[in-house]
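Regression report. Comparing outputs from two consecutive submissions.

Submission 1:
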Amino acid sequence: MNVTIIVCTYNRAGSLERTLESLAAMAVPRSIEWEVLVIDNNSSDGTRAACERFCLRWPDKFRYIFEQHQGLSHARNTGIREARGEVVAFTDDDITVDVAWLQQLTASLTDGRMVGAGGRIVPDRPFAPPTWLAADALELGGVLPFFDLGEKPSLLTRPPYGANMAYRKDAFQKYGLFRTDLGRLGDSLISSEDAEFGLRLLRAGEFLQYEPKAIVFHAISEDRLRKTYFLAWWFGLGRSSVRLAGPRRNIWGIPRPLLSIARAAFRLVRKALGWVLSLRADQRFFFKLQVWMLAGCILESYRQLLRGDVKTYNSQTAGAAS
């Protein structure tokens, strides 16, 4: 089996080097031919130089590609087009992988029954949630991107996360690429392109496997443990959810974005009351996060209304990979 590992990066030369070192140190059986494809999405730091050092040390394993079109989905889609492998695996530039990661992640993709797989994402150091954070606030992945469904392999009923997932390349040829109206872009925290693709496959009746022994370790940066980051992420979550829903029919001649704004505004008032009236600090902040999320929903719905609720599912990303 041939596997291409795609690592998209933007101005993280230091952590990227640790990621690439862990990939170079993997124990991979001879039955798996593998390569690492680094997609540099307009970095202005030492990313290119760091990648070139790996390309010189392992010219048959590491490749570097510069993608000028800004955005994580654009970078991932470029990686898919350039991939030589029949299986495409993804991880992030602030990850270190377990020595057996690639073998474990791709083990179920050899016979064609499974079209994709996802593994565990765990913190790279002992971690305790901040005291101001309610447990409910961690149920949505991404803000602290951990993914752990236990010790037993199983079929996935929810999509894996982009830091630890793999798909057969023909899945992109059949179902299209990542949506470019989703995914990180600059300072925007709009995301969910990985979740949307996984849901696309699950809704089509495809099978995805959870591989608990395919483990990656995610760095916990200090900025992700600040309230300002959580608020920004939940605001982006609200905007992402509207884009995920896509254009919908009007009801009784009333534009759906307008109805969405009214519904979100009503919910926002209720959550704001919870924010003000809750006695526990962690619950107050959880309500505040939901207020920010609903504000994101309102903003994105308003933008859809101004555009006439145009189709947001980009035809470029809906098309097949070449």
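Submission 2:
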Amino acid sequence: MTHKYHAMIIGAHPDDSEFAIAGTVANWTRDGKKVVYVICTNGNKGTNDPKMTPERLTGIRKKEEMAAAQVLGVKEVVFLGHDDQSLEDTPEFRKELVKEIRTYQPRIVAAPDPYRKYIWHRDHRIAGQVALDAVYPFARDRLAYPDLFEAGLLPHKVRELLFWGANEPNYFMDVSQTYETKLSALRCHESQLSQFREGWQKWFRDMHTWHSKKHNYELAEAFYRVEVQY
């Protein structure tokens, strides 16, 4: 099975990918591997500013995501354009993700962990669950969404899933050399970081240090990794 892209990152909102997996993405692109972003919502509710409108915020967050992708070396960004806080597990949404998987044919798909316990944005749970279902079995099966097949989007087998935000991660990526690149990409999301409490950089670094404590890494990102068996 040919893989046109090394990885597809499916984020519920603009900025999710930068918080969760940007160090890993920077590792991949630094090595010449192709990565595509699929951003499911426009993030149009992510503000505490009483003067901000959803329409204006949509434009701001799209520009921020494009700037962050450029920092990371991600040349393809797909915006599905759903409203923030609106994702649902529907055949239509699943078909959108199947279409992108068959178009870009990634080896790896990364997404939020749909099974995370306790506090987790509902859009994250839904995006992760629909991404999982899109990978298996829908992107694989020729008779799933036959109109996509008729349009030339052939079945594709993803080989690996990486879920971020997992309560019990089993895979850790060394991002010691790309952490500053991750921070630079994250800082592109000024509309979101302006709402963070002062000193967020410390707890953010501490989290990456904690993820690396069982390995000989300085800093790490953590995932639940699944090899897809067909």
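Expected: both submissions complete independently.
Actual: both completed, but the second showed a warning that disappeared on reload.
Relevant detail on submission 2: The chain is about 40% helix and 20% strand.
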